[in-house]
Amino acid sequence: MKKIVLLGYMGCGKSTIAQNLSKITNIPFLDLDKCIEKKANLSINEIFEKYGEIYFRKLEHEMFVELLQSDENTIIGLGGGTPCYANNHELLQSENVISIYLKASIDTLYNRLIHNKSKRPLIANMNEEEMREFIAKHLFDRSFYYNHAQHKLGVDGRTVEETVNDILEILA
Ligand SMILES: Nc1ncnc2c1ncn2[C@@H]1O[C@H](COP(=O)(O)OP(=O)(O)OP(=O)(O)O)[C@@H](O)[C@H]1O
Ligand SMILES: O=C(O)C1=C[C@@H](O)[C@@H](O)[C@H](O)C1
Ligand SMILES: [Mg+2]
């Protein structure tokens, strides 16, 4: 069964794009962060606070493998860090997977995340200057893993509809 896997940095639009793609294609969408929250019965913030990031990464890997093994066609929106831990980046190239990196610039990410950081524990407590520098360095470190995706789509200046259409072209 095919899995359409969307990946990229926090705020690149994985959840938003996946929801819209799901409506058009009628393929169910599963958000990895939400699946982890449901299984743990805790928010991502609570998992980080109570058990730490390493434990979160373990749950994240297990849930990613579980979602890939289901025998349904699904759209999976990864967490921002998912490809960068365990061997998750290798799973992006599995046979039944179509993986798509939603590639956003530092400016796009900063402008989106500055208004929307409270539910993202890695940046929740940063001021504006710290956040810009953090995103720049972090994106650089993570790009190696994101670039294991089979397809890359630039999302700067693109509307949700345009990006969804770009994905439909990849799937055609
Ligand atoms: N053209 C666009 N495409 C996608 N999202 C957009 C766009 N313009 C604005 N946004 C907004 O960017 C924000 C971040 O998007 P979203 O939460 O989908 O990102 P994410 O990649 O799922 O982040 P996270 O990894 O933290 O879950 C949302 O508030 C969304 O509405
Ligand atoms: O970029 C990251 O490492 C994260 C992104 C979010 O989707 C969550 O998975 C969590 O907040 C960690
Ligand atoms: Mg999301």
Automatic annotation (TrEMBL):
<comment type="pathway">
    <text>Metabolic intermediate biosynthesis; chorismate biosynthesis; chorismate from D-erythrose 4-phosphate and phosphoenolpyruvate: step 5/7.</text>
</comment>
<feature type="binding site">
    <location>
        <position position="120"/>
    </location>
    <ligand>
        <name>ATP</name>
    </ligand>
</feature>
<protein>
    <recommendedName>
        <fullName>Shikimate kinase</fullName>
        <ecNumber>2.7.1.71</ecNumber>
    </recommendedName>
</protein>
<keyword id="KW-0028">Amino-acid biosynthesis</keyword>
<dbReference type="InterPro" id="IPR031322">
    <property type="entry name" value="Shikimate/glucono_kinase"/>
</dbReference>
<feature type="binding site">
    <location>
        <position position="57"/>
    </location>
    <ligand>
        <name>substrate</name>
    </ligand>
</feature>
<keyword id="KW-0067">ATP-binding</keyword>
<comment type="function">
    <text>Catalyzes the specific phosphorylation of the 3-hydroxyl group of shikimic acid using ATP as a cosubstrate.</text>
</comment>
<feature type="binding site">
    <location>
        <position position="142"/>
    </location>
    <ligand>
        <name>substrate</name>
    </ligand>
</feature>
<keyword id="KW-0547">Nucleotide-binding</keyword>
<dbReference type="GO" id="GO:0016301">
    <property type="term" value="F:kinase activity"/>
</dbReference>
<keyword id="KW-0479">Metal-binding</keyword>
<feature type="binding site">
    <location>
        <position position="33"/>
    </location>
    <ligand>
        <name>substrate</name>
    </ligand>
</feature>
<feature type="binding site">
    <location>
        <position position="80"/>
    </location>
    <ligand>
        <name>substrate</name>
    </ligand>
</feature>
<keyword id="KW-0057">Aromatic amino acid biosynthesis</keyword>
<comment type="similarity">
    <text>Belongs to the shikimate kinase family.</text>
</comment>
<dbReference type="Pfam" id="PF01202">
    <property type="entry name" value="SKI"/>
</dbReference>
<feature type="binding site">
    <location>
        <position position="158"/>
    </location>
    <ligand>
        <name>ATP</name>
    </ligand>
</feature>
<keyword id="KW-0963">Cytoplasm</keyword>
<feature type="binding site">
    <location>
        <position position="15"/>
    </location>
    <ligand>
        <name>Mg(2+)</name>
    </ligand>
</feature>
<keyword id="KW-0418">Kinase</keyword>
<keyword id="KW-0808">Transferase</keyword>
<comment type="subunit">
    <text>Monomer.</text>
</comment>
<dbReference type="InterPro" id="IPR000623">
    <property type="entry name" value="Shikimate_kinase/TSH1"/>
</dbReference>
<feature type="binding site">
    <location>
        <begin position="11"/>
        <end position="16"/>
    </location>
    <ligand>
        <name>ATP</name>
    </ligand>
</feature>
<dbReference type="InterPro" id="IPR027417">
    <property type="entry name" value="P-loop_NTPase"/>
</dbReference>
<keyword id="KW-0460">Magnesium</keyword>
